[in-house]
Amino acid sequence: MALSFAEVPGARSISGTIRETFYDITFDSAYPTGGEAVDPGDVGLAAIFGLDPNYGQGLASGVAATSAYVLTWDQVNGKLQVFTTAGSGALTAHTHDLLIIGGQAAAGTDTVQAAVGDVIFGKEEAVNATIVGADSATKGGVVAASAGSVAAAALAEVTNGSDLSTLKIRARIVGI
C-alpha cells in the first residue's frame, strides 16, 4: 500500500507556475524504512519543491494516540519520514537523588533539617528557599543524571513495517 491524499477543499493557491495545495494524508499499515515515497503525480504535480507536514497531525476514526510522531520531508529522496522518541510511549516513572552537604552551617539562625528516615526536608523559617543552578557536588541539590536515568535522546525512525494506518496529517505541498 501507499499514502492516500485528499485535497483540502478551497486550499489551493496558484502563483504563475507555482502551485501550493493543502492535503490530508493518511498513512498505510506498513511503513517502509526510509519513509513513504511521494510521487509528484500523486498530488497532480510535475515536481515537488517542498512538502511541509507540520500543519497538524491527528488520528483517523478518533482512535486514541499511543505515540507522538515528528514528520519530516526528505527532499532529496522524495519521501515523507516519521520519527518517534527512541523509547516511544509514556514516560516511565523515575526518581532523583538529593544530596545534602553535611558539616556546613546554614546562614543566620535558619537551620535546614533533613530527616532521611521520615523523608522530611525543611527549614525553620517559614519562607521557602531555592538554590538555583546549584552545583550539587559543593552546595547540595539534585544529583546529575547517571546510567538508568531519564535523559535526552535523539528521535528514531518508526520501525520498518509499523502500522500507521490511524495516522492522518495535514501538509502543505508546493510545486509545479
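Second entry:
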Amino acid sequence: MRIGVDVWRGAGDTPAMYNAIVLDHFQNPRNAGTLDRATATISVENPVCGDLLELSVRMEAGRIAEARFRTRGCVTAMACSSLLTELLGGKTPAEARAITPEQMSEALGGLPPATFHAAQLARDAALALAEKLG
C-alpha cells in the first residue's frame, strides 16, 4: 500500500487527521537511520503508547554536528523525531535542553491533544541527550 496524503484524509467533510507538515516529515523523514561514530546515543520510550525513539548525535567543538533517529511509533512520533534532528543541528547540550514540546508542536503546524505526546517524547529525548552529553 502506498502511504500518501490520500491515505490520511477523512471521508467527506472530515478534515485530515494529519496536516501537510506532519505528513511531509513522516513521508520524507530527515536524518533517519543510525549514525556511525556517534558521540552519544540515547533511547526514550512513552510507557503509555509504546512509542520508542533512539537518537544519536556526533559532537564537534561542543556543538551537535549531526543527528540521526530511529523511531517505532505513530505518524506524529516519526514527524517529531525528524523535526528534532533538524532542531538539534548546531546546538550545544544546554540549547538542546531548552527545546520544548510546544515549540515542536508549533513547528509542525500545531499538534492536536491526541498526538501531542509525540512532541513530549521528542522533548524527553532532547533532555536525555543533554544529560548524557553533560
